[in-house]
Amino acid sequence: MKITGIIPSRYASTRFPGKPLADIGGKTMIRRVYEQASKSKFLTEVIVATDDERIFKEVESFGGKVMMTSPEHKNGTERCAEVAQHIDADVIINIQGDEPFIEPIQIDTLCECFKDESTQIATLVRVIDWDDELRNPSRVKVVLNNFHDAMYFSRSIIPNPVSHYHRDELVFYLHVGIYGFRKNTLMEVVKLEPTQLEITESLEQLRWLENGYKIKCAFTGHTGTAVDTLEDLENLQF
């Protein structure tokens, strides 16, 4: 099975323009994401998908693989799909370009979901451990069924009644925003029209669920270090 990691990367971020080129300890953010992803033991290759010449040249400068994509894409999923149609791959892993310290084992955990031939889409979740995270609408919560497939994602508080972690109490899961797709599934979902639930929650994965696709969820214990704003960058510890 050939698994390709794709890192969508655009320059024109609303909250932090030029974020992929931000310096983090002497390396750009996009380089750190690329180098961490390249440590995965299951990825056949890693490709940056960008619409900006500055990012393209930066990736080339450190010897990374990069492809130019359309500036018209609405999200990273569409950008990944454009690259996917031009490469030989069975599975595509969409790796967030603002996670400079992503753990390679997280990528590996996601890749392992596709050993099950029935897996169409996979993502990661972890148990929410503190109240501020639970109540923060920017932190997406997910409820699972008994087979660890996602039933719903929300910015609101949604509990899971039981789990293999907490048998006798409510448990809350946080969505960790990295996705894997069978290539044919990825090419299908990017053709779907937005749905009302997706628009209401501003979460594209609800479009996939509403159209009958299953999203397998695997567990991770890593919290991640996403950089959404300049303040996040200034608060990084490494």
| Beta-strand segment tally | 11
Terminal CA distance reads 34 Å
Gyration radius from CA atoms, angstroms: 17 Å
Please give the largest β-sheet.
Answer: 9 strands, mixed
Q: Which blocks of ≥5 consecutive residues have pLDDT under 50?
A: none
CATH architectural type: Alpha-Beta Complex
Give the integer mean of the pLDDT values. 90
What is the general shape? globular
Order of helices and strands: EEEHEHEHEHEHEEEHHHEH
CATH topology label: Spore Coat Polysaccharide Biosynthesis Protein SpsA, Chain A
Describe the protein's architecture and organization.
The protein is an alpha/beta fold and about 240 residues long. The chain has one domain (about 5-225): Spore Coat Polysaccharide Biosynthesis Protein SpsA, Chain A (Alpha-Beta Complex), CATH 3.90.550. About 25% of the residues lie in helices and about 25% in strands. It contains nine helices and eleven strands. The protein has helices spanning about 30-35, 55-60, 75-85, 105-110, 130-135, 185-190, 195-200, 205-210, 230-235; strands at about 5-10, 25, 25-30, 45-50, 65-70, 90-95, 120-125, 140-145, 150-155, 175-180, 215-220. Strands 1, 4, 5, 6, 7, 8, 9, 10 and 11 form a nine-stranded mixed sheet that branches. The longest helix is centred in the N-terminal third of the chain and has 9 residues, at about 30-35. The two termini are about 35 Å apart.
Main attributes of the structure:
Spore Coat Polysaccharide Biosynthesis Protein SpsA, Chain A, 238 residues, globular, 9 helices, nine-stranded mixed sheet, alpha/beta, two-stranded antiparallel sheet
